[in-house]
Amino acid sequence: MTEEKFIHDSHTVLKFIKCYCDNEHFQSEKRTDSIKLNYNDKDLNLEMPYHLCARCEETLLYSYVKLQECPHDEKPSCRKCPKPCYDKPQWKHLAKIMRFSGIRFGILKIKKKIFDRFKKSA
Ligand SMILES: [Zn+2]
């Protein structure tokens, strides 16, 4: 996938996880940190700051690594991927987050585009 696509998808995942964490884990202790975006061993000179609980941070980092490792030039939606790379429990967990945040955002266009990717085993 292109660097632009990689950057875009990284931020999209963060946005959904953050919405979920802010609403569901507002009582949890949060950590502030950032990811230095790096794709195909290239430093993209971009930081992606986040403020999440430990569980959601783990989910974010997991998704980020999976995105980095995605072997497709033309990244398909994850739902239609011939070789899904997520572990089943992580997949289900992220599907839950996507569903929750998708409803919160109420932005149908984004919801359809992103949420469809994770709907499969929800
Ligand atoms: Zn959280």
What ligand molecules are bound, each kind once?
Answer: zinc ion
Give the proportion of residues in helices: 55-70%
Total beta-strand segments: 2
Radius of gyration: 14 Å
Query: What is the general shape?
Result: globular
Indicate how many domains the architecture comprises.
1
Number of helices: 4
Instruction: Measure the end-to-end span.
Output: 26 Å
The low-pLDDT segments are none
Strand content: 15-25%
Main pleated-sheet profile? 2 strands, antiparallel
Whole-number mean pLDDT: 89
The spatial strand order of the largest sheet comes to 1-2
Helix/strand order, N-terminal first: HEEHHH
Which secondary-structure class do the elements indicate?
alpha+beta
Describe this structure in words.
- The chain is an alpha+beta fold and 122 residues long.
- It has one domain (3-119).
- The protein contains four helices and two strands; from the N terminus they run H-E-E-H-H-H.
- The chain has helices spanning 3-24, 54-69, 88-105, 108-119, and strands at 31-39, 42-52.
- The chain has a two-stranded antiparallel ribbon with strand order 1-2.
- A hairpin with a 2-residue loop joins strand 1 and strand 2.
- It starts with a helix and ends with a helix.
- The structure holds zinc ion (ZN).
- The site of zinc ion has 7 residues, from helix 2.
Secondary-structure map:
Elements: H1 3-24, E1 31-39, E2 42-52, H2 54-69, H3 88-105, H4 108-119
Antiparallel strand pairs: 1-2
Short structural description:
With 122 residues, this protein is α+β, with helices and mostly antiparallel strands. The protein is 56% helix and 16% strand.
